[in-house]
Specification:
single chain, 6-stranded antiparallel beta sheet, 4 helices, globular, 10 strands, alpha+beta
């Protein structure tokens, strides 16, 4: 169960950083009871809480899905890890299992027709790259809209809030690659 692995890895990194649940709650703006429920596997965190936790602790979000000792990893459609989101018509799936020292993460994101999602600013010096596989994606960064069509790529500094919008009636599918500064 993915929620159990997320909780185990949260507890592991918290202990490695010699932190209490109170410390993590303060750094991440996620309540202590919510963190406890995640660590014990009682609940699976939403994508918004995972972003808060990963940003607050300075680790990639995919770390929470990681297993130890990966020399080669092939990800099949059936291996993708769904991440809960409160946005209607939005599906977010984590791809590779990431270690705490990796400087990238990849997500597969699908937006049904007319769906949208706001993303909070990421940690400093984060670059986000988008590869649209199907449909057309409108991304709003710094109050500027940009449309990316299937087969096109884009990148931007992700330490500002941004919005993904599918203005079309058909579904849009894209890959989001997050590149983090290795010096953090």
């Amino acid at each position: 169960m993915i929620g159990k692995r997320v909780g185990e890895n949260l507890k592991k990194v918290r202990i490695e950083k010699n932190m209490t649940l109170d410390n993590v709650a303060e750094m991440t703006d996620v309540s202590k009871p919510t963190l406890h429920n995640i660590e014990t596997g009682k609940t699976s965190p939403s994508i918004d809480n995972l972003w808060k936790i990963s940003s607050g602790l300075g680790i990639p979000i995919n770390y929470f899905f990681s297993k130890a000792g990966i020399d080669f990893e092939l990800v099949k459609q059936s291996d993708l890890h769904p991440i809960a989101t409160e946005n209607i018509g939005v599906t977010i799936q984590a791809t590779f299992n990431t270690s705490v020292n990796d400087n990238f993460e990849i997500f597969k994101i699908s937006l049904s027709g007319q769906a949208e999602r706001y993303s909070e600013p990421h940690v400093d010096n984060t670059i986000e790259m988008l590869i649209v596989a199907r449909g057309a994606l409108t991304i709003v960064v710094n109050d500027e809209s940009h449309t990316i069509r299937a087969g096109e790529l884009a990148k931007f500094d992700a330490q500002v809030g941004h919005r993904y919008i599918n203005q079309e009636p058909d579904d849009c599918e894209f890959y989001c690659i997050m590149l983090y500064d290795n010096t953090r």
